[in-house]
Amino acid sequence: MPKLALGKRTAILPIVQGGMGVGISLSGLATAVAEEGGIGVIAANAIGMIEPDYYADGRAANIRALRREIRQARARTAGMIGVNIMVAVNDFPQLLETAISEKVDILFLGAGLPIKGIPVKAIRAAGTEVAPIVSSRRAAELIFKYWEKAYQDVPDAVVVEGPLAGGHLGFKPEQLDDPAFALEKIVPEVVAAVAPFQKAFHKTIPVIAAGGIFSGQDIWRFLQLGAQGVQMATRFVATHECDADQRFKDAYVTCRREDLTIIKSPVGMPGRAIRNRFLDDAAAGIRNVTRCAWRCLESCDIKNSVYCISAALNHARQGQLEHGFAFAGANAYRVERIVSVRELLGELKVEYEAALIKSFTTLKEEYLNVIDRGFASLHREYERARQRVDRRWRVCSQAWGKKIVAVREEYEKAAAHWQTLKKEYDGVIQKLNVLKVQFPERLLELQAIIRRYPAVPDPF
Fold first, then answer.
1. How confident is the model over 235-244, as a mean pLDDT?
2. What is the percent of the chain where pLDDT is above 70?
3. What is the mean pLDDT of residues 222-250?
4. How far is CA 323 from CA 239, 326, 346, 450, in A?
5. Contact call for residues 352 and 413 (beta carbons, < 8 A)
6. Strands 9-11 and 15-17: what pairing?
7. How many C-beta atoms lie closer than 10 Å to residue 320's C-beta?
8. What average pLDDT does the structure give for the chain?
9. What are the sequence ranges of the domains in the chain?
């Protein structure tokens, strides 16, 4: 896999572990991912619920817990550690200030537009990178244009989250199955949207695809669409290092496709979760809330809500699914077992390499097919037409002249297509040669592949 450059930092793998609250991705999971070369992310939303005094002072508990988790991660790894903070929460400024003061590697800012009141100078002084999380080209353009005008700066990356993600979704319910809002469509749009800012600020701004990324083949596919990295969350729940209770992880392993459902969250947004008795009761209007610790979200109407979203997620984290539920991505039903982070990333690497090699062999077949069946015969027809024109120029110059022009146009189009394929084909050979250096343990295998697919000839 290619590396992922983010500002002044570079991750060995182009994989970001998505931030999952409440308390699903803490220092344990983030450290394990960072140690293996990915970007580990601590979720800040309602993180104070892991503290004993959250209901006494939720704001203070959040700050204390976030600071401790960051420091614990820092003490255990030199890899990249990020923090995911929801813009919509009432203590967003304090959580942001805490993460900056601890000099985390990267801030992922979602659940709202991070535009007004962002301490950009403090972020830059701390050497921290910033990546907003968006669900559309329009949102990305709005953020980048605002930053450019207000801060004379722009974010260092952007995460594009599609409708197949778990948790709260930035789409209307009717958009979730609409092809117009598919991640495959949004990613190239956002890539195009940030391109002018890359040029204006003389920096690379990677687009990170998120939502429904499950396999190494998926990673390959979205990198071909222009993304430079991916964010994955669901796969990391099913790891030994995930900070959630084993019963929470088991819910992923045992869930079926039909168990994944879209709920209406108390915060006013749709969300994807694993259906259970708690959610069935909520849908039936059975109230399951006793108190609100503090007004953590303005958009949450606790008086009319049937449950507290933070409390429900915290209960689920502890394995008390009868009092809560698990958010999950659309592919959670494909999870078959709990593995280590190292094993998971190893599987993704192998799948990615298989996708690369498959595309390589397909490209060679297409290239040779163009030469053998199309380009070569077209070249012969062009030569015959030219010779006929030479022999019978006075008799039928006009008729043959039209034919040779038509044949020449087809010929030149085929030649341009050949040049494109040749460039792609040679590029893949170069990638395989790079892989020989990056993966010396697979040297013999890669050399065998290159020998099977040597440089192909020109059609002349």
1. 96
2. 86
3. 96
4. 23, 11, 35, 56
5. no
6. unpaired
7. 15
8. 87
9. 4-252+333-339, 354-452
Q: How many CA atoms lie within 13 A of 305 on its CB side?
A: 22
**Percent helix / strand / coil, the chain, rounded to 5:** 55, 15, 35
The top-scoring range by mean pLDDT among 198-207, 364-373, 377-386 is: 198-207
Q: How many CA atoms lie within 13 A of 384 on its CB side?
A: 6
The CA-CA-CA angle for residues 23, 250, 171, to 5°, reads: 60
The class that CATH gives domain 4-252+333-339 is alpha beta
Q: 310: closest CA among 212, 171, 167, 169?
A: 167
Please give the Cα distance from 20 to 27 (Å, whole number): 12
| 40-52: pLDDT as tens digits | 999 999 999 999 9
* Residue 154 pLDDT class (50, 70, 90 cuts): very high
387 Cβ neighbours under 8 A, 6+ residues apart: none
Q: Please, which contacts does 61-68 make with residues 24 or more away whose CB atoms are closer than 8 Å?
A: 62/91, 62/94, 62/95, 63/91, 63/94, 63/95, 63/98, 66/42, 66/95, 66/98, 66/99, 67/98, 67/102
